[in-house]
Amino acid sequence: xxxxxxxxxxxxxxxxxxxxxxxxxxxxxxxxxxxxxxxxxxxxxxxxxxxxxxxxxxxxxxxxxxxxxxxxxxxxxxxxxxxxxxxxxxxxxxxxxxxxxxxxxxxxxxxxxxxxxxxxxxxxxxxxxxxxxxxxxxxxxxxxxxxxxxxxxxxxxxxxxxxxxxxxxxxxxxxxxxxxxxxxxxxxxxxxxxxxxxxxxxxxxxxxxxxxxxxxxxxxxxxxxxxxxxxxxxxxxxxxxxxxxxxxxxxxxxxxxxxxxxxxxxxxxxxxxxxxxxxxxxxxxxxxxxxxxxxxxxxxxxxxxxxxxxxxxxxxxxxxxxxxxxxxxxxxxxxxxxxxxxxxxxxxxxxxxxxxxxxxxxxxxxxxxxxxxxxxxxxxxxxxxxxxxxxxxxxxxxxxxxxxxxxxxxxxxxxxxxxxxxxxxxxxxxxxxxxxxxxxxxxxxxxxxxxxxxxxxxxxxxxxxxxxxxxxxxxxxxxxxxxxx
Length: 485
Description:
With 485 residues, the chain is of the alpha/beta class. The chain folds into four domains: 3-176, Alpha-Beta Complex (Spore Coat Polysaccharide Biosynthesis Protein SpsA, Chain A), CATH 3.90.550.10; 199-318, Serine Threonine Protein Phosphatase 5, Tetratricopeptide repeat; 337-418, no CATH class; 430-484. 52% of the residues lie in helices and 14% in strands. The protein is built from 21 helices and ten strands. The protein has helices at 16-24, 41-47, 61-70, 88-101, 176-197, 203-213, 217-230, 240-251, 256-269, 274-286, 290-304, 320-337, 341-354, 359-368, 374-384, 391-400, 404-411, 420-426, 430-439, 444-454, 473-484, and strands at 3-9, 30-34, 51-54, 76-78, 84-85, 107-118, 124-136, 141-144, 150-153, 160-171. The chain has an eight-stranded mixed beta sheet with strand order 3-2-1-4-7-6-10-5, sandwiched between helices. A two-stranded antiparallel sheet has the order 8-9. Helix 5 runs antiparallel to helix 6 and helix 19 (430-439) packs across helix 21. It holds the Pfam family Glycos_transf_2. Keywords: TPR repeat, Transferase.
């Protein structure tokens, strides 16, 4: 059994090294099709041991991918994008799965979970879908579609794509710094395709997704309503049109009745889907209808703990787990407003147990714990976080929320993310911090900000940071010590 790894690229010098390292764990037969890179992509691919082919970009992803398949020699093809990868454990699972299904003739591809991560925000989870990136090298298996290309089979015998729940592909292509450029590119290709071959029903869903991510919610509602009527959406995303509709109506500040109608449409189609009720609760929160928000948040959380009816689509991706931390966060804020500190702490902790890298939730918890003994705070954080791996995340939040002792504790576990000035300051050695600031020529504006924000020094007193002609130096130093003490 031989494997060929394929990829199409353009200006992927940042992502390609990881792709190459990942594929080398699975095969040495790597096909890289370059569509016009202007950076070091081609050189990286060649040095990495890949066979590089050139294909002029014609605005059609399927054509470029099929060109790559034509150069594949393996029995199986791995066609991950340059910004996709398997974990080390995932690579081992790939080999096990191929050995398992290689002799099963009707299985011509493997469908896996597709996890979108934001690399710009500490690889924070965005959402999940399904993709077929592993398939047999057969002449009847080719891609179709200029954008959102789909693998289609023209096999002369019964075949199937096997869903394998034990394998996930991780994708960083929706990270914040690149998503806007990709969306504009995809929209242009979609509109050009429509003009060339006329409208197709499946276009409406993809256009709605594009407009939604581009924050054009009016157009989103227009196209997603059509997609709901047509019921043409990718496998595993059957609930997505209703979620997009609900969120777009909320962001358009539509009447509450219209939002609730969309929620009920979703629940009628897919009963027990807590995602719809939670989104409705977020809309109530946005509208400052806190009583309704509280009721719906609790209802949504309760729904999420119940088993769905058997009629639910088995592969449908439910985004509830991505929404629950926010639900607990909002309930925590409500509890804090009611002066129920213990309940608020418990709710914030629940939220962080589900998504510990939500800095805004941690900030809420730390503000609530202001004045609590530092050792108790550290004990709580150690139970939630890996103190070494997460120290870089914890320190800025602790500094922002006035937990200087705790920040100093975790900073020692980093690779020196603080300046000596900050270390002295957090340790309470204010005179040493001031002396160091003066000796090292620290920007006075930055020093003034520190004093105003952390020591509550009135702006009028910051003038003493500046030397004045004829001023008694001993008196000035005495005043500086007072500022830092």
